[in-house]
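Marked as duplicate of an earlier ticket. Keeping the data here for the record.
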Amino acid sequence: MIQPQPIQKILFGSPGTGKSYQIRTIATEQLGIAYDEESKLLKNTIKTVFHPEYTYPDFMGKLLPLTQGNSVIYKFYPGHFLRSLGMAYQSLIDGKDEHCLLVIDELNRGNAAAIFGTAFQLLDRESDNWSTYHIDISEMELVGLLTSMKYKPTVQPDGKLMVEDAGLERFCDDMDRQLERNGNTNGQRVLSMLKNRKISMPCNLSIIATINTSDESIYYLDSAFKRRWDWEYVESPSGKNAKDTLPDEIAAAKLKIDDEQALQWHLCVIGLNELIKSQYQTVRRIEDKQIGWWFIKPENGEITLQKVKDKVMFYLWDSVFVRDKRPLEKILSTATDDEPKLITYADFVEHTAALMTYTEKQGRQRSPNL
């Protein structure tokens, strides 16, 4: 059986374009990772979300106090990276070679370079899909890694590391002889690294991250970090791609204006994106300022006007046209046959119904076959 190539990719695009959903498609179709419809979980997958308070110890592991009766002990908890690494290593040792996946949502909302730390070196891979380099890990990190591999490591009072009642070196040597008889070279490679207290990225571990490019309150990703990833742009809905990308749930969704009027939500999305793009001369990074099909998720096939006010209108006001409200005034003058003056957000949000009606009309013109 040919094993899938590991993926090291960042999905980027506007909010609501379905980047997280696309991860599931990549995992199942390209990596052969099973998806449980009942639990809505991917097998062999660890998921985390970066944020400003997320740190290297969260990623690799940290020592935390634990109360036992009247005593307080300290226990090392492996981080998301060590957990995914342990899962992948154990799969290789067991001879299953199942692919494992680490998912990082909102990669640029944390200080990625500081979070990865020395693990940054592991992102370079050779033709055999293992890391080009190894890195050393601490005794605590090794204990956390072995724990993630479902072993029972303990540290004796003299500092000797025991695994399954044997010293680490003896444990690895005994396991190595078994794997050699089975021709399990990948498993032997893992044991050799553990014995020398080193780690590298194995051939059966992938990392997929997402970036919401419209969010400007983020950490900068330097070029050295960026070049170690494949980048895939998740396109926003437009008149050109709507027919191929429109989900059935969104196609059936209605935006209820009042008891007598309901709009087709997908046409509103298309029309809104076309309006945003028309302001390319005044809006910075225009392709990142559009919205995706899932910017608002329908409930029972319906989008409420209040949801549009709370999410879409505020997004336009606070993110897309945050520096200059004159384009909004221009758009609304066409949509309302009036000349509204936008001094406050309340001045803008009162035109929600008129703006959505206008964007549906624009969307219909751009996508007459929908």
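See parent ticket for discussion. Residues 39 and 153 are 31 Å apart (CA to CA).
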